[in-house]
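Re: the 201-residue chain
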Amino acid sequence: MLVFDGSGSMAEMGFNQIGEPRIFEARRAVATVMPQVAADRRIGLLVYGPGSVDPCGGVKLHFPPVQNAADRLIGAVDALSPEGSTALTAAVEMAAGVLKYEEQPATIVLVTDGKETCGGQPCALAADLSAEGLATTVHVIGFKVRGDYFAWGSQGASDYVEAEPVARCLADRTGGTYSGAESLDELIAALRVTLGCNVLF
C-alpha cells in the first residue's frame, strides 16, 4: 500500500526555496516508477491531507491493492490538490487495517515531507504494528524534509541538516527502511526500491 502525502506543505518548495513545489516532482516520480512496478504486484493507494473541512480529517483510501494499478494511481496523484495537515499516523493505521495486518503479511510505503502534525504517535503505532501484526513492514520515504539553520560556530555560514521525520521510527521498529529523498532522482530511486520489493502491497 502506498500512503502518499497530499498535505498543504506538498504545494511548497524544498528547504532552499528554489525550484518547484514538491507535488510536481512527486507526480513525475510516481509516473516514472508505477509502470515499472505495478504490473508485477498488487498496489493500493491511500492519501492523507486533502478532502476534509477538518485539516486532520483528510485520510482517504482511493483503492485497496489491485493488479495493474499504474494508470489508476498516476491519475489519482495527478488530480491531487495539496491541502490539510499531516495525519500520517492515522493514514498508516488505516492502511494496515485495509491490508488486514493481523491476519497476513502487510507492506506499507509511506511518503512524507514532514512530521506528524495531527497529534498522532507514529512510534507508538509502530510498536503496535510490530506486536500485533503477522508480519507488518513500513518503509518511510522522507521527501524534501531537509531543514536549514544558522550555525553560530561557522562564521556566518549556513549549514544544512536533514530533519528526519519522527515517522522514521515506523520503519525502524517494523524492519522497514528509511530513505531521504531531496531530489526527483532520489525519490524515483526510493520508490523503485520500496515498491519493487517482492511483496504484496
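The helical segments are 22-37, 70-78, 88-98, 122-132, 168-172, 184-195.
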